[in-house]
Design a protein that fits this description.
Largest sheet: none
GO molecular function: endonuclease activity
InterPro entries: DNA_glycosylase (IPR011257), HhH-GPD_domain (IPR003265), HhH_base_excis_C (IPR023170)
GO biological process, one term: base-excision repair
Order of helices and strands: HHHHHHHHHHHHH
CATH topology of the largest domain: Endonuclease Iii, domain 2
Radius of gyration: 20 Å
Keywords: Endonuclease, Hydrolase, Nuclease
Oligomer: single chain
Shape: elongated
Number of strands: 0
Distance between the termini: 26 Å
CATH superfamily of the largest domain: Helix-hairpin-Helix base-excision DNA repair enzymes (C-terminal)
CATH class of the largest domain: Mainly Alpha
Bound molecules: iron/sulfur cluster
Helix content: 55-70%
Protein name: Endonuclease-3
Strand content: under 5%
Number of domains: 2
Number of helices: 13
CATH architecture of the largest domain: Orthogonal Bundle
Length: 255
Amino acid sequence: MATTATYTSPPAEKTWQDHLLLNEFYPPLTQDTVRRSPMRELISTVLSHRTTHADEELAYDRMLEAFGDWAGVLAAPTAELAHAIRTTRWPDTQAPRIQEILRRIWAERGGFTLDFLEEWPTERGMQWLNDMPGIGLKTASLVLLFNFRKPVLPVDTHVHRIAQRVGMIGPKASADKAHQVLLEQLPKDSLVLLNFHKHNYWHGQRVCLYAKPDCLKCPLKGFCNYYLEHYGPATEEALAATPKKWDPDWGALPH
Ligand code: SF4
């Protein structure tokens, strides 16, 4: 797909073209792909902070193996819980945090479930999750988008970096600001937001790397500010040589 955006396009136009091009470059997702239960999504996202996916999964499995279920995790001695999740970055901080989250859910809902969020308006659910210790906009958005198809946008470090480099947001806009600006620029359609989030997440992990972006491979080069600054305007040859789709031979896409 040819892009209609240019280096001087308004940020909202760049955001939409980013979505269209990456939706073609990477496999599009459907909303049937709920990857894990709401409780698991919430607690796993707490565990994942600055932690690899493999270490997060290991911590989650060890925690449930050691304590059986959420009631067991809540009742566990905090030091033992910290030991079980020791593959995460800050187990001594995360263990009491997880127990406080579980305590609040139990106290307010009478069970370890988040299913009530399905019925709640998006803003109310976002606020409720956000009030939990250690739950920021990103985690709250992940739970609401992935599990309840609410029209919100998780902005992780990859989405944030690409939005800055391309010029969808200002170069100094914070992740929380990016969350607000990108959401205003995109349709309030959870399928679009799901694909935008995942595709930019994959792109940040595989192409637009923090240390050394692989711009040759990138379909966004025709309107990306970073590309313009480092290489000048993309030539017709450079655009023609850009792959149209992710090649599985380059490696597996992240989870
Ligand atoms: S052109 Fe380069 S800097 Fe811009 S989004 Fe693509 S990989 Fe990232």
